[in-house]
Design brief:
The complex is a heterodimer of chains A (about 260) and B (about 450). Chain A has about 260 residues and is mainly α. Chain A has eleven helices and no strands. The model of chain A has no long low-confidence stretch (mean pLDDT about 85). Mean pLDDT of chain B is about 85; it is low at about 40-45 and about 435-445. The chains are: A mainly alpha (about 260), B alpha+beta (about 450). The interface between A and B is large, with 61 and 53 residues.
């Protein structure tokens, strides 16, 4: 465990120092800071628009950071040959992979925490949120986004065990798109009574297999108030279990692939 | 290592089953119920980049950006450009209640001709948008209320629907106290006077409780308003003979609604210029406040009903009304027992295309829409009103209205062909013109301030 944590800590330190990530983060933070100015452009619905914009900025920035952060994790180590130094020590490959992943997720978490804190501070200063219940309702969304991005990072780490960064970027981006765009579509197909059973079967399989990033998009009730949420605790518990299970699948598969890879 | 690898793959397979079960049994159903928005984005007209972002889960972000854009169009007065944005925003994020309510108002009220007459062909789309919004946001009263208000205030002639939507709104716990009073008015407009009285009574009881609890600063004001409304209603029920009718002794006593007053409606429509009509007529009622509806429409206008149309025509929201259909609706205000109005439809060819061969002009007066001081004579359902020629209780079952129609041809309205140099004039058979009628004071007998007749 100590080995994993040591690698995670090093990875986190590296990630925080990477300029490209800091630039993306800075852009996101800047957008968040100036977002309240947009309310002047939208006197009607200003609060709804403001929340939609700020949460959208956090999600979009986090998705880019998650992919950019993780596509280079393994290939960079191989390219710079630092992996030889690490693996020549009593470090197993699976420990290396998990350590890298945890470090990346830690860095992602820190960046998202920073963005969320800025968003809440801006809202509090501008008096756009009142009371702990409203703050909690807003803060829940970036938390769900963090789990979503952790899953996206796991997808990217899995691909990074065998694909180059550029290929990985498009693969991870593609899976993210499919998982958000087409999941409901496949669900609709799988329940369509007029479709060929074979097509329905395929749609069901794809719906179940592809990571469903859409399920982490929980921002709507935070943006539009007055919505009644049923079994929220159960939903978040299920979401956590689902994410943990899927991340485990990807990391185990990544470990197996990485074990056989020549470096 | 081989065995270990096989075990790991087995673990992956096992976890894959677990994630599938958790997702399908718990996560996805709850997400669909609580957080999902509509997915039928294919025909929304989004640009490719917007579509990509929308699909990628940034719907609310795009909806926000679009709404900011729509607002600049509001400021510029570019109303046409706002319509597709409203539709897109409601598709992207169907929980944006203010966009729905603003959209309904905009569609129903803001598309007008040069004379500020609304393009009524849009109203069914506004109704459909309201119903869609209410169905998408069943936890708040707002869009039920807004839909009811559209029927109550804009349409003014489908009060059962107004009552239905207001009742739905009142079932929601977040309804604002002051807005609850509207259902009383809707009940009265719908002829459900007992229900109006019961409703006001219940509101009064609730408001008394709020006043006693001392928690609500506005409670006493609201209580006073309700009490005043309730008092007025009870007095009107008595004076208009409502209780007497229910008790079966209406014929035995004098009430404000007796005897029925002959409104003496007559009208003449002349086409003074192409697409410009002049409407003149008579109306015996002296007090100001009468609004007689005039409709000019295609003879075979789809969904037409007497002096109106079916305002709900299905869930489709058509933001581009058919360019070959004409429907004009206007109110004729009566002053000094006459009305005289020029209606110019020549400047808005998109709104009044006059593409058909035959047209109907309808005159319609419904006492349900009358102000209270006129209703005091006519009653809620026109029992205190009559007309020798045009009293009608078929076009709106259960009430007396004034209704008549005239026919015009396209050539007449466009002043072309045989009518190029002749002024087409169509008038009711009893039309006498202003010169023949002498304005005179009229005294209405008010039984309440006269000595009671010596009856049982």
């Amino acid at each position: 465990m100590g080995v994993i944590l040591a690698i995670a800590k090093t990875t986190l330190g590296e990630a925080v120092r990477r300029r490209v990530l800091l630039v993306i983060l800075l852009v996101g933070v800047l957008f968040l800071a100036i977002a309240p100015a947009l309310e002047a452009l939208s006197p009607r619905q200003e609060l709804t628009v403001l929340r939609a914009l700020t949460l959208g900025i956090i999600q979009l920035t986090s998705a880019v950071i998650a992919v950019v952060l993780t596509v280079y994790l393994i290939p960079n180590e191989i390219e710079r040959r630092t992996i030889y130094t690490i693996l020549s020590k009593p470090v197993r490959r699976w420990q290396f992979l998990i350590g890298k992943y945890l470090g990346a997720v830690g860095a992602l978490g820190l960046m998202m925490l920073l963005m969320t804190t800025i968003m809440l501070l801006v809202f509090l200063i501008m008096r756009k949120v009142e009371g702990t219940a409203e703050i909690a309702s807003l803060a829940k969304v970036p938390f769900a986004f963090f789990i979503q991005m952790s899953l996206l990072a796991a997808v990217s780490v899995f691909f990074s065990t065998f694909a180059s960064p550029i290929v990985n970027f498009f693969l991870s981006g593609g899976v993210y798109l499919v998982g958000t765009v087409f999941d409901s579509f496949f669900d609709v197909l799988s329940k369509n009574s007029q479709l060929n059973p074979a097509v329905k079967g395929m749609a069901s399989i794809v719906h179940v297999i592809v990571p469903n990033f859409q399920s982490f998009n929980v921002q709507n009730p935070a943006i539009n108030q007055l919505q009644f949420i049923q079994s929220e605790g159960m939903f978040y518990l299920g979401l956590g279990v689902y994410a943990f299970t899927y991340i485990s699948i990807l990391l185990i598969a990544g470990i197996v692939v990485f074990e056989y890879r020549e470096v | 290592m081989r065995l270990k690898t096989a075990q790991l793959w087995g673990l992956v397979a096992g976890l894959a089953i677990v994630q599938g079960l958790v997702h399908e049994a718990v996560v996805f159903p709850l997400w669909k119920k609580n957080y999902a928005v509509r997915t039928d984005l294919g025909n929304g007209g989004l640009s490719p980049d917007q579509l990509l972002l929308a699909f990628a889960g940034f719907r609310e972000l795009i909806a926000g950006i679009l709404w900011v854009r729509a607002d600049s169009f509001f400021d510029d007065g570019n109303f046409d450009a706002i319509l597709p944005i409203i539709r897109l925003v409601t598709i992207l994020d169907p929980h944006q209640i203010d966009v729905y309510s603003t959209g309904m108002w905009h569609i129903a009220y803001n598309f007008t001709d040069e004379g500020s007459r609304s393009d009524r062909r849009y109203v069914p789309s506004a109704v459909a948008l309201g119903i869609e919004g209410a169905n998408n946001n069943p936890n708040t009263y707002e869009l039920f209320y807004e839909t009811g208000w559209l029927y109550f205030h804009k349409i003014e002639d489908d009060y059962p629907e107004a009552v239905k939507w207001f009742e739905e709104a009142m079932k929601r716990p977040d309804v604002i106290t002051a807005r609850r009073n509207i259902l009383n008015a809707a009940y009265q407009h719908n002829g459900q006077i007992d229900k109006a009285a019961d409703y006001l009574y219940n509101l009064l009881q609730e408001s008394e409780k709020r006043v006693k609890s001392g928690r609500d600063f506005m409670a006493s004001t609201n209580r006073d308003t309700i009490e005043n409304n309730y008092d007025n209603l009870l007095v009107r029920m008595a004076q208009r003979g409502y209780f007497a009718k229910k008790g079966g002794y209406y014929q035995d006593w004098d009430y404000d609604t007796k005897p029925p007053f002959d409104v003496g409606f007559s009208a003449e429509v002349s086409v003074v210029e192409p697409k410009v009509i002049r409407v003149e007529g008579t109306w015996n009622v002296l007090p100001v406040g009468t609004r007689i509806r005039i409709v000019l429409r295609d003879e075979n206008f789809p969904h037409a009903v007497p002096a109106g149309m079916q305002w709900y025509q299905g869930p489709a929201i058509n933001l581009d009304p058919p360019k070959d259909e004409t429907f004009m609706q206007e109110q004729l205000f009566v002053k000094n027992q006459r009305f005289d109005r020029k209606i110019d439809m020549s400047r808005d060819p998109l709104m009044y295309p006059f593409a058909q061969d035959k047209y109907i002009v309808e005159f319609y007066y419904n006492p349900r829409q009358a102000p209270a001081y006129i209703q005091d004579k006519f009653g809620w359902s026109g029992e205190g009103m009559t007309d020798r020629n045009f009293l009608n209780n078929d076009v709106r079952p259960g009430m007396n209205v004034i209704y008549t129609t005239m026919e015009f041809t396209r050539d007449q309205l466009l002043r072309q062909g045989a009518w190029e140099n002749k002024v087409p004039v169509v008038r009711t058979k009893n039309y006498v013109g202003f010169g023949a009628r002498q304005l005179q004071d009229q005294v209405f007998k008010v039984p309440g301030i006269e000595p009671e007749p010596d009856k049982k």
